[in-house]
Design goal:
Structural class: alpha/beta
CATH topology: TIM Barrel
Strand order of the largest sheet: 7-6-5-4-3-2-1-8
Number of domains: 1
CATH architecture: Alpha-Beta Barrel
Shape: globular
CATH class: Alpha Beta
Radius of gyration: 17 Å
Number of strands: 8
Bound molecules: phosphoenolpyruvate
CATH superfamily: Aldolase class I
Largest sheet: 8 strands, parallel
Number of helices: 12
Strand content: 5-15%
Helix content: 40-55%
């Protein structure tokens, strides 16, 4: 049985005041979702605040990205060991915004996946197709290529130490959610693809859905057999909505 994971990706949003208010609501609301693992991924600069405010709460925190390097002359970057130093347990790698705005290749994302594991962080590997790729019927090819880059570098057993997030790019921040059937089709494809290499990894690994998930559509999505929770952008910025999604995953 895979425990659902609901992860909030705050992206570049927040202020000290709004972070305080959001975490106050999450701390309170998380008491209603004992069956769900809850995670927040704030902008780096708020991580110490998050660490302080979540002390003792059943909520984890993590980074939205990490450097390929451990330390050194890499202006503006934050490394895996630094995230661990501030209590992070997860880190997102290969988010589509990093793949597109920062031109991160499949190989770089795979190397970040490896760097995260090396630091003792659990990587959340984002994969997903653009609208154009979906319309060209290449969704499975794209997702397989993104996954295979990690498998080639790290091996299937190491992939199994992470979490996968299927995030169709056309559904991120657009209000257009994949239907539960569309999402399940891709999640089923991913699990089937992994099962061909290692059935234990395929059975155990959590595959989250991300893309305009909200309290009103979360239950139907997470109710699908291969959807093990969500990676939430916009709706993770309001405690009520984020906890509403966690409650949908708790049932
Ligand atoms: C995301 O960016 O990971 C995401 C899923 O965003 P949103 O929920 O806003 O679509």
């Amino acid at each position: 049985m895979r425990q659902p994971l609901v992860a909030g990706n705050w992206k570049m949003n927040g202020s000290r005041a709004s972070v305080f208010e959001l975490l106050t609501g999450i701390r309170e609301g998380v008491k209603t979702v004992p069956g769900v693992e809850v995670l927040v991924c704030p902008p780096y600069i708020y991580i110490p605040e998050v660490q302080g405010q979540l002390h003792g709460a059943p909520v984890s925190w993590g980074g939205q990205d990490l450097s390929l390097q451990e330390s050194g002359a890499y202006t503006g970057e934050v490394s895996g060991p630094m995230l661990v130093d501030f209590g992070c347990s997860y880190v997102i790698v290969g988010h589509s915004e990093r793949r597109s705005y920062h031109v991160e290749s499949d190989e770089q994302v795979a190397a970040k996946f490896a760097a995260a594991l090396q630091s003792g962080l659990t990587p959340i590997l984002c994969v997903g197709e653009t609208l154009e790729q979906r319309e060209q019927n290449t969704t499975e090819e794209v997702v397989a290529r993104q996954l295979n880059a990690v498998i080639e570098l790290c091996g299937i057993a190491m992939l199994g130490m992470g979490v996968i997030a299927y995030e169709p790019v056309w559904a991120i921040g657009t209000g257009k959610t994949a239907t539960p059937e569309q999402a399940q089709d891709v999640h089923g494809f991913i699990r089937g693809m992994l099962a061909q290499q290692d059935s234990a990894v395929a059975e155990k690994i959590r595959i989250l859905y991300g893309g305009s998930m909200k309290p009103s559509n979360a239950a139907e999505l997470i109710g699908k057999p291969d959807i093990d929770g969500g990676l939430i952008g916009g709706a993770s910025l309001k405690a009520e909505d984020f906890i509403g999604i966690c409650q949908a995953a708790n049932n």
